[in-house]
Amino acid sequence: METIGLVLVLVGLGVLGGAVVGLVRLRREVSAVEARAVRVAERVNALPSPLTGGFGTGDRHVIVVELLNLFELAHRESVLTRPFTILTPRLLRDVVHRKLVGRVRESLSAAGVAADVRVRRAR
Asked: Of 8, 16, 30, 47, which one has the greatest count of Cβ atoms within 10 A?
């Protein structure tokens, strides 16, 4: 009986050791992926996803525009947008965003401004 108990303890210690080794490898892999993600984000000059904090002291400046009357803009475009606002507000919002991004791009390029115009979702 003592032999079986000793074997079970040794097997348990072996499994525990294997789990610790696996955990150490996993932590190392996670830190490597995180470092790679930071390098990629720096290379493409990505902004942090929450735009609520300060942007830092870098050379880039960002102009943020919040659309306050999105559905009113949509209602001016077409009479059919009122029913769509009730049925599919998210789809209508995306369509209006796409149209406005296009207009802003055209307006800026006509003025000779090189700009990257994108829609970012705030949380």
From this structure: 47
The verdict on 72 and 40 lying in the same domain is no
Which of 70, 121, 68 lies closest to 99, judged by CA? 70
The reported pLDDT for the residue numbered 54 is 54
- For the question of whether the overall pTM of this predicted structure is more than 0.90, the answer is no
The region that residue 56 occupies, defined by phi over 0 for left and psi between -120 and 50 for alpha, beta otherwise, is: left
pLDDT at 47 over 80: no
Q: Do residues 59 and 113 both lie within one domain?
A: yes
pLDDT value, residue 52: 43
| Structural domains of the chain, count | 2
Residue 37 sits in the same domain as residue 64: no
Range of the domain at 15: 1-46
Q: Which long-range contacts (CB under 8 A, 24 or more apart) does 76-85 make?
A: none
Q: Quick one: 55 and 28 in the same domain? A: no
Query: Residue 48 pLDDT > 70, yes or no?
Result: no
| SS3 state at 17 | helix
Q: Taking the CB of residue 86, how many other CB atoms lie within 10 A of it?
A: 8
